[in-house]
Design goal:
about 180 residues; 14 strands; five-stranded mixed β-sheet; single chain; alpha/beta; globular; four-stranded mixed β-sheet; about 25% strand
Length: about 180
């Protein structure tokens, strides 16, 4: 599944250097000129972050990188990199045991470290699987009315909750949803 998504994103990014909508032709954003990647409305699905058992480091690491940190599989957390060490915990201290999810992940991966899908540019210095590269456009997360509507959320899932009085970012670490609001 991950390979199909990567091939799809790569194909889309090499053919188009503008907005990509996954799931339908309309998406959810009203201002299309400011969007690189968005998702169909009403799907009750999220975007899944990569599981890493070693936190990325080095020159290819850039601000805004978000991962599910499985360095210790029994204490997984969603984290982001803000340009300085250490990584910032988005799980608010909540930990999850994702040992069983890791057992279904491939164990022998021969990865081309230079392979990446880039949307918004033909090149990027960033090191990642899917890179959104723009100074003026952004990602619109999948939108749900409630995290309770998401069937069987996967560890590392991110969604935006669009509920009156409770609009917020939600991340799932494998055991708990953590909510971030402005």
């Amino acid at each position: 599944m991950k390979n199909i998504f990567s091939i799809l994103c790569f194909s889309l990014s090499t053919a188009v250097f503008s907005q990509v909508i996954l799931g339908d032709k309309v998406g959810t954003a009203t201002n299309k000129t400011s969007v690189l990647l968005e998702f169909a409305a009403g799907q009750n699905k999220g975007i899944i972050l990569p599981y890493v058992q070693t936190l990325p480091s080095g020159s290819g690491l850039v601000e805004g990188t978000i991962v599910l940190d499985a360095t210790i599989p029994t204490k997984a957390k969603v984290k982001y990199y803000n340009g300085t060490a250490p990584w910032v915990d988005l799980s608010s201290g909540n930990e999850a045991d994702i040992t069983s999810q890791l057992t279904i992940q491939p164990t022998t991966i021969t990865e081309d470290a230079t392979a990446k899908a880039i949307i918004g540019s033909s090149t990027s210095a960033a090191n990642g699987v899917l890179i959104l590269e723009s100074q003026t456009k952004a990602l619109v997360l999948p939108i749900v009315a409630s995290t309770a509507d998401v069937p069987d959320p996967a560890p590392g899932m991110m969604v935006y909750v669009n509920k009156a009085g409770a609009k917020r970012l939600a991340v799932f670490n494998g055991a708990n949803w953590t909510y971030w609001k402005p």
